[in-house]
Specification:
By secondary structure, this protein is α+β, with helices and mostly antiparallel strands. 50% of the residues lie in helices and 8% in strands. It is built from 17 helices and 10 strands. The strands form 3 sheets. It has a 5-stranded mixed sheet with strand order 1-2-8-5-3. Strands 4-10-9 form a 3-stranded antiparallel sheet. A hairpin with a 2-residue loop joins strand 1 and strand 2. Helix 9 packs across helix 11, helix 13 crosses helix 14 and helix 14 crosses helix 17. The longest helix has 32 residues. The N and C termini lie far apart (101 Å).
Length: 497
């Protein structure tokens, strides 16, 4: 009996020592500060304001109030989330700890809609991602294809110009026209042609953007599996998946039935899947994931940037007049606006850059995941934390930008700052090894259409709308577009080239 009592006391002593050790260890693990949280739901109540305004704006204000060094920790249900709004912290993450944060956060929406994250954007970091990224760079974005993209862009832009000429003096939905333009460019660049069912597919892409930009019950409470089917968006996500799947199956079927294989991305992927020549075999779901990804990352973000650029020029008549004068002077007397001549348009390029600063297409980028517990700027980032980098807030940081809440393209005219991932106050395409592989393609897809539209047309706002009253409200989603479509009146001044 005495031995038993001694053992119990000894066991209690060991437990006490272990408890004290854990308390000291926890003290040493200084995690980023954050707002007060409630049991179970954590900080979800603070994020409820995002139903009234976009998440990137809500998070900027929370970081200002509760964060330190531009970094803050939130408890979103069962999930640890670290929000970064500081270029200095972003540099630490992307440059000094790039490998630790190289994996993207997987959500119910991304896994369901992107076929278990088989695309290059959402795929976990590893051999499969490296292989698929190589296919992107060597097959889709190789020198031959990049040259062919300019001719595709030229043809589609001139189709748009002809369409706008027929609508001279009438109110046109600029947002819709640009979205169709970008989708046609993406279709022909990746698939060789515009496929059947494009209009319905584009509607589903908008749904996908909304799903990716929100919080789902299954993501917030992953262990409550019994409730996943009853709460959140699972049914809506599955419905969108079924619609998208039917359209994609038809695309793949059409390409398989072709007599000769082409050199567009889908043909290349099908050929490599059938040949089995890759170290990690490409599957049918890989091709599906890539198709959805190309549209979600290509047409949606490019059209969003172009529409915001035009919106800001209509909001700032001085900028519109200066950009238009530059384009018309540069191409005076020319019958065609060639792609190589776009390099002359220094001010219009500054307008696009300022748009990417002021309205980055993905204001929170694609969330990352912490692959191992890491110290960043004196704070411990827990394993498996969801990392949200607020590039929208960083692009409006007064420590790095003069008069950041004003749209001033001139700030880029004599500046070396670019969007290639080397300037951490300006990361519209991200940085590090997971930087967007199509950033050059996306920039050209915004610059060239704007140059043609400014060269060939004068633009007016609808009757009763002025520059001061033009609605610039943002919608919520992973790609933050205008909440309401932009309507304008075009008046042609040149014959279409």
């Amino acid at each position: 009996m005495e031995n038993f009592i001694s053992f119990v006391f000894f066991l209690c002593f060991i437990i006490l020592l272990h408890t004290q050790w854990r308390k000291k260890a926890k003290t040493r693990r200084k995690e980023p500060p954050g707002p007060w949280k409630l049991p179970i739901i954590g900080n979800l109540h603070q994020l409820s304001a995002s139903s009234q305004q976009p998440t990137h704006r809500v998070l900027r204000e929370l970081v200002k109030k509760y964060g330190s060094q531009g970094m803050m920790k939130l408890q979103i249900g069962e999930i640890n989330a670290v929000v970064v709004s500081s270029p200095a912290v972003a540099k630490e993450l992307i440059r000094n700890h790039d490998l630790t944060f190289a994996t993207k956060w997987q959500s119910l929406a991304s896994k369901t809609l992107f076929y278990n994250d088989f695309g290059v954007v959402f795929s976990p970091y590893g051999d499969y991602w490296r292989q698929l990224r190589k296919v992107y760079s060597t097959e889709l974005l190789n020198a031959k294809n990049v040259r062919s993209f300019s001719s595709i862009r030229h043809d589609e832009i001139h189709s748009l110009l002809a369409d706008l000429h027929s609508s001279s003096g009438q109110l046109v939905n600029f947002t819709h026209r640009i979205f169709l333009l970008m989708s046609s460019i993406i279709c022909k660049s990746a698939f060789g042609k515009v496929f059947t069912g494009r209009e319905e597919f584009l509607e589903q892409i908008k749904e996908i953007s909304e799903f990716l930009g929100g919080f789902d019950f299954a993501d917030v409470f992953p262990s409550w599996k019994v409730l996943h089917g009853l709460c959140g968006n699972k049914k809506r996500i599955m419905k969108t998946r079924r619609k998208v799947d039917g359209i994609i199956e038809n695309i793949i079927k059409e390409h398989r039935e072709k007599v000769e294989s082409g050199d567009c991305l889908i043909d290349v992927l099908i050929t490599q899947m059938d040949s089995g020549g890759l170290k990690l075999p490409i599957t049918h779901d890989t091709i599906k994931g890539v198709i959805v990804e190309i549209f979600a990352a290509g047409s949606d973000t490019s059209s969003t940037a172009t529409v915001w650029a035009m919106s800001e020029m209509m909001k700032n008549p001085r900028v519109l007049a200066k950009a238009q004068a530059e384009v018309r002077e540069a191409f005076r007397g020319k019958e065609k606006l060639e792609e190589e001549d776009m390099e002359e348009l220094a001010y219009l390029k500054s307008v696009v850059k300022e748009t990417l600063r002021f309205h980055p297409p993905l204001p929170m980028l694609v969330p990352k995941e912490c692959m191992e517990e890491t110290m960043v700027c004196g704070y411990t980032i827990p394993l498996k934390s969801k990392i949200l980098i607020n590039v929208w807030a960083m692009g409006r940081d007064p420590q790095y930008w003069e008069d950041p809440e004003s749209f001033i393209p001139e700030r880029f005219e004599k500046s070396s700052i670019d969007f290639m991932g080397n300037h951490f106050e300006f990361l519209p395409f991200g940085g590090g090894r997971r930087i967007c592989p199509g950033l050059g393609f996306g920039f050209a897809n915004a610059l060239s259409p704007l140059a043609h539209l400014l060269f060939h047309f004068d633009w007016k706002l609808p009757s009763g709308v002025t520059a001061d009253t033009l609605d610039m409200t943002e919608m919520n989603g992973i790609a933050v577009a205008r909440k309401n479509d932009l309507f304008l009146i075009p008046t042609p001044i040149h014959a279409s080239s």
